[in-house]
Every structure is written in structure tokens, then in C-alpha cells.
UniProtKB/TrEMBL annotation:
Function noted in UniProt: Catalyzes the ATP-dependent phosphorylation of 3-oxo-tetronate to 3-oxo-tetronate 4-phosphate.
Designated name of the protein: 3-oxo-tetronate kinase
Reaction catalysis annotation: 3-dehydro-L-erythronate + ATP = 3-dehydro-4-O-phospho-L-erythronate + ADP + H(+); 3-dehydro-D-erythronate + ATP = 3-dehydro-4-O-phospho-D-erythronate + ADP + H(+)
Domain Four-carbon acid sugar kinase nucleotide binding: 253-412
EC primary class: transferase
Molecular function via GO: ATP binding; kinase activity
Organism: Chania multitudinisentens RB-25
Entry's EC annotation: 2.7.1.217
SUPFAM superfamilies cross-referenced by the UniProt entry: YgbK-like
Length: 421
């Protein structure tokens, strides 16, 4: 029976939440985009990955509503809008409009805002979002190429994007347990508060949220809340890791399009371990030149494919270099050109027989998955919290889709050495 339907606004976010659902006992399948027809899937949760995080609001709303209709048709009882644990959204912000549209479509008056993921250092206190020991707006996220985050107050961010008022369930109330949280949510609803930010300092708070929110029709958040909800829905003795998602495939490549602080560290480390090639953005801007460049890069990848560790292609840049590129070509032109390059490289590598892709970056992962024309994933073993190996349902292709900010410094090598095929 289908219990939970998740609408994720990017692909790494989708594998992130799918991984936590599986790890916490809820069998889950990830579908890339909204399926064109109804499918019989033997699972209890479905995560639909969209590539809507940086879309204009109207487009993101349309995609989310299509996903909702499909999930409703499959009989899901609860719906979860998954966005980033760092609340990534553009200045025009589509988290608010999507949340409003989903609430309206479901005929609901209230939902929660819970981006926290304490295991990866994302906590919420008095409505302020922290990344490790820093406020969101003081973390590396202020330099994000597409969705720079310069405010940390979730109530303010939400009210700027959405139509209703936003309130808070604070940490002290969370400490008092599920009944106290439910009571506070009711009080807020009576005051006409449409969205309630949930303070979250630790995993116990996520378990409390799961208990308090099991009957809420629509919840929104990062992947942490999924831990609490999965524990509520899971049947005792349910298998955790899914062997159907274990990595396979000989020819592997690492593609990195994230410019996050962590990915910069990971790329720097991996460059000392394996063959690595930086992507020259200047050669990606013009379409014809880009095609020739993609062919050249794939030739280089093929040449290094037999080494113990897979070759790396990276657009990953430090903030100063990124800023220069963006000033030269424009932010959108540069990022779309890099994404188009990764798309073409992926298609060529697939034709060359590559079947294991380790990808860094949410947008980049969306581009790679779409280029490979993969419709869905079985969720495999967890490499780092929120980053599982996944295996395509209908093709022998395995991927590790890493959120820009996730994983340890040795992630790219570990994804291969600790999970031999
Ligand atoms: N050197 C670069 N110059 C300009 N844009 C870049 C560069 N490298 C990556 N990008 C773009 O930055 C964006 C990174 O987003 P994403 O892949 O979602 O990473 P993250 O997971 O860190 O958010 C992509 O659109 C990518 O194409
Ligand atoms: O919630 C998170 O932090 C991640 O699941 C996520 O959304 C990943 O997004 P990117 O950082 O853009 O990869």
C-alpha cells in the first residue's frame, strides 16, 4: 500500500530523502519526473524528483501540482514537499508558492516548515537556520551560484515568498513532546497561521515531529523529518538496505558541477588521488564549440577509465573564480552552459559504455539523470548520510547523486573503494 508521496525539488534532494526513508524502514522508489501513466509499484513510498528548485514560481507550481495529482491517484495518504536543508530558493522564491498551491489543492489550512537535518549539521533554533556552527547566511551558501542565501530567518523567508503568515514551534515546545507540538500547531491554526517553522536541534526532535505530524496531510521540509515519519509508518522488521540498488557497472566517471564549500574540498582531495580535468567555461558558451569540447573531454575520460579510481571532470570553482566567470558571461548563461556541457558529456559517455556515474550537485545531477533518460531508481546502500548509491530501474546504470554540501572530504574515492562492484 502506498503511504507517503514525496515531491522533491531536485534530484540529489530526492535521493537524499529516499535514502532516509529506506534506512528508517519504509520501502521507497524514486521516480524521475512525473510518470506519464499510472504504474503498479510494489512500494510504500514514492519520491518524485523534479528539477524545479531554480525555476520561476509558476513553472515550479505547475510541476508540483502534476506530481501531486499522480501521487493522489496512486492512493498516497500523506504528501511531503522536499526542498533543500539550506532552504535554497531564488530571490523570487518558489518554496512559498509551491507550498500554497499544494495546500490549496489538498484543501488544507496549515503545514510545517522543517528543513533541519542534524546529522549533517542543519539545525533550526528560534526559527533561524544554521549550517554547522554558522547561520545559513554566514555559511558558504551565501556564495551559491544560482540560489545564494543571505537571510537565515525561516519565518521571514517564508512570508516573503508565500501568501500566509508564518509562526514558530520553538525548541522548548519541541522538548515537551508530540502532544505539546500538536497543541501548539492547533493554537497557531486558530490564529490563522498557515505555516509553522519547527525548531529542530537533534534527532529526538525529528522523532517527535514524526509522531506529531503522522496525520498532517501535507508536510514540507528537508530530509530529516522523513526519519521521524518513516519510523511512524514502518512495519516492524522491514528490511533496511535494498540490494536492488547496490552499485554495478565497470566503467565509471566522476562529474562535479557543484561549487559548494564541501565539493571544493572533495575535488581538491580527489585531484591528488585520480586523473582530473577542470572544465573551461569559456569553451561551453557557444553551442558548436561546446560540442567539440565535449567530444574532447570524453576522449580524455576514456583514456583514463582503466585506472583504479574513476577520472573526474569538474566545473567546481572557488567563490572568487566563480564570480569572475559570472561577471564575464552572466550568471544564468554560465550555469546553463556548464549544465549543457555535462548533459552532452553524459550522453557521449553512455554511448561509450560508461554505466557508473558519481555526480556532485543537485542541478548537475538533474541534468545527468535526464541526459541518461532514466525514469526511476532503486535505492541502494548509503555512502554518506543523505547520499545513497541508486540503480536505474530499467537500465544497468548506477549513480551516486551527491548534494553539493554533503559527504566527507574523501567522498569520491570512498564511493568507489567502499562499494566495490
Ligand atoms: N565554474 C562555474 N561557473 C559558472 N557556473 C557554474 C560553474 N560550475 C558550476 N556552475 C553551475 O552552478 C550550478 C551548481 O548547482 P548544483 O549542481 O545544484 O550544485 P549544488 O548542489 O552545490 O547546489 C549549476 O547550474 C552549474 O552548472
Ligand atoms: O536537503 C538537502 O540539503 C539536500 O537533499 C538537497 O536538497 C541537495 O541540494 P543540492 O545542495 O543542490 O545538491
Amino acid at each position: 500500500m502506498m503511504l507517503l508521496g514525496v515531491i522533491a525539488d531536485d534530484f540529489t534532494g530526492a535521493t537524499d530523502i529516499a535514502s532516509f526513508l529506506v534506512e528508517n524502514g519504509l520501502p521507497t522508489v524514486q521516480l524521475n519526473g512525473v510518470p506519464h501513466s499510472d504504474t503498479q509499484i510494489d512500494t510504500q513510498a514514492v519520491v518524485i524528483s523534479l528539477k524545479s528548485r531554480s525555476c520561476p514560481a509558476a513553472q515550479a507550481v505547475e510541476q508540483a501540482l502534476q506530481a501531486l495529482i499522480w501521487l493522489q491517484r496512486q492512493g498516497c495518504r500523506q504528501f511531503y514537499f522536499k526542498y533543500c536543508s539550506t532552504f535554497d530558493s531564488t530571490a523570487q522564491g518558489n518554496i512559498g508558492p509551491v507550498t500554497d498551491a499544494l495546500l490549496d489543492a489538498l484543501g488544507e489550512q496549515q503545514t510545517v516548515i522543517s528543513p533541519a537535518l542534524p546529522v549533517n549539521g542543519r539545525t533550526v533554533y528560534q526559527g533561524y537556520l544554521f549550517v554547522m556552527e554558522q547561520l545559513l547566511s554566514e555559511s558558504g551558501m551565501r556564495h551559491h551560484p544560482v540560489t545564494p542565501m543571505t537571510d537565515s530567518n525561516l519565518l521571514r523567508l517564508m512570508e516573503a515568498q508565500a501568501t500566509g503568515r508564518c509562526g514558530l514551534v520553538n525548541a522548548a515546545e519541541m522538548d515537551r513532546g508530540a502532544a505539546a507540538v500538536k497543541e501548539k500547531l492547533q493554537q497557531l491554526a486558530q490564529q490563522g497561521v498557515r505555516y509553522a517553522v519547527l525548531d529542530t536541534l537533534n534527532e529526538q526532535h525529528l522523532l517527535t515531529q514524526g509522531e506529531a505530524l503522522k496525520t498532517m496531510k501535507l508536510v514540507t521540509g528537508g530530509s530529516g523529518l522523513a526519519i521521524g515519519l518513516a519510523r511512524q509508518w514502518a512495519q516492524p522488521g522491514q528490511a533496511k538496505a535494498q540490494s536492488a540498488g547496490a552499485p554495478q557497472g565497470k566503467k565509471a566517471v566522476v562529474l562535479s558541477g557543484s561549487c559548494s564549500t564541501m565539493t571544493n574540498k572533495q575535488v581538491n582531495r580527489y585531484r591528488q588521488q585520480a586523473a582530473a580535468q577542470a572544465i573551461d567555461v569559456a569553451r561551453c558558451i557557444n553551442e558548436t564549440a561546446r560540442s567539440a569540447y565535449a567530444a574532447e573531454l570524453c576522449h580524455w575520460v576514456e583514456h583514463h577509465a582503466t585506472a583504479e579510481l574513476a577520472p573526474l571532470l569538474y566545473a567546481t570553482a572557488e567563490p572568487q573564480q566563480l564570480q569572475q566567470t559570472q561577471q564575464l558571461y552572466g550568471t544564468q548563461t554560465a550555469s546553463l552552459a556548464v549544465e549543457a556541457l555535462f548533459s552532452e558529456v553524459t550522453q557521449r559517455l553512455q554511448q561509450q559504455g560508461f554505466s557508473r556515474f558519481i555526480v556532485a550537485g543537485g542541478e548537475t545531477s538533474g541534468v545527468v539523470t535526464q541526459a541518461l533518460k532514466l525514469h526511476g531508481f532503486h535505492i541502494g546502500p548509503c555512502i554518506s548520510p543523505g547520499v545513497p548509491w541508486v540503480r536505474a530501474i530499467e537500465q544497468p546504470v548506477s549513480l551516486a547523486l551527491k548534494s553539493g554540501n554533503f559527504g566527507d572530504e574523501n567522498f569520491f574515492a570512498r564511493a568507489q573503494t567502499e562499494f566495490p562492484v
